[in-house]
Amino acid sequence: MKILAAEQIHLADKATIGRKGINSIDLMENAAFQCFDFIQKNYQVKNQPFKIISGVGNNGGDGLVIARYLNEINADITCYIVHFSDKQSDDFKTNLEKLKSLKVEIHHIYDENELPEIQSNDIVIDAIFGVGIKKSPYGFTKKLIQQLNNSGAYILSIDLPSGLMADKTVDDQEAVIKSNKTLTFQVPKLAFLLPENQSYCADFEVLDIGLNQDFINSLETNHFFITKLDLQQLYKPRHQFSHKGNFGHSLLIGGSYGKIGAISLTAKGALKMGSGLVSAYIPKCGYQILQTSIPEVMVEVDNESEIHHFNYKTIANVTGIGPGLGLHEKTIDGFLTFLKLQKNPMVIDADALNILAQNKSSLKFIPKNSVLTPHPKEFERLVGTWKNDFEKLEKLREFSNKYQLIVVLKGAYTIVAHQNKLHFNSTGNAALATAGSGDVLTGMITGLIAQAYTPLEASLIGVYIHGKTADIYTMEFPYETFTASEIINLLPLAVKDTFYP
After folding, report:
1. pTM of the full predicted structure?
2. In terms of CB atoms within 10 Å, which of 26, 165, 303, 314 comes out highest?
């Protein structure tokens, strides 16, 4: 799914009006009805007070249409019009007249003396500003936003939380609605997917409002939202006469004394994700552990407590390296020598990334189209600090392009960067913030590459299914009880949900 810039969304609105032969007010009516329908299906409407806070532009018009639909089902509604400008959109004015004819209670806010009283049991529908906002709210509008945020009421924002801009960082953090839920139109907004905005957009739902899909398909963008439908087009089904040799051989390199668990999780991830054969190259101290706990994995060993020599005999079609590797001086020397000899794309994680961060001149030896899987701190060690999340995205793009690598930046909405394009994952939750979670992901991506998925395809599929395991788990159990082993246990359900009808 494409993520569009604010100007592109405006163009899609215009194209839909032109190509479908409808009026802008009809488009507004449909968008607002989709919001109303969502509200009616997901919230207790009877005996629930709603406060609809509308601006004077088209986002405010959406709020007025929602108010009209709620009034038709006898909901308890009160409307407030925020006159932050003397200009009113035509569609706003039309819908205000429609609402007046229904004798709905409407209050007008021109200054801070007219701010509404909001109770903690209210549902506030925030329709003050939409995607067209270009600067932070100020004056009495800012004070209204602060009052709403401090009210304790549940806030449901329409399209964007008011004051949040789709394509740039917030310059006044006190002038943005902190929404509990945002009902956004047609596509996700980039701002929703960035950690710096987590307090403004706790959750969002994308509503299809009928914008012209052919026109959207024609638009160029470098931002995408990974969905199940996208991945189903990549899936390689297995055939009746397949054998293990058809599904590749993964070599996992890692582990050190006290950290054999990391490479064990990686090996399990590769196996469970379908790699035909899996070998592990580890220190001698982990031999019995792996042979006993994962009998399906073949094992080669190096030095007693760490990997020094990198002199394995296994011939595999993909190598994943780093989990539990450690930072012993001989390990670092051995890894840097090993890296210069590699020709095929690899999956590089954990301590292998930390070694590279300390030896940046060696980044040029990484085979093109290799996959790096840093968490934010590991990525910071590679590229330096950033002022805000939009600058972080630029650094991610630049780093990926410079070295011709795929970078999987882990976190909420894990980002897969490749050839100037950023793909944001749609699955997963805070349960994944647990020891070993990234080790399993490294194995999963390695196992997918072994099966002849391209490194990009393997990264997209891997992060989606990895996140899906957490979504499945937390449908029944709390975040805190999730472990990396649960990811492996739930892979069958996650794969089935993603690829099987």
Report:
1. 0.95
2. 165
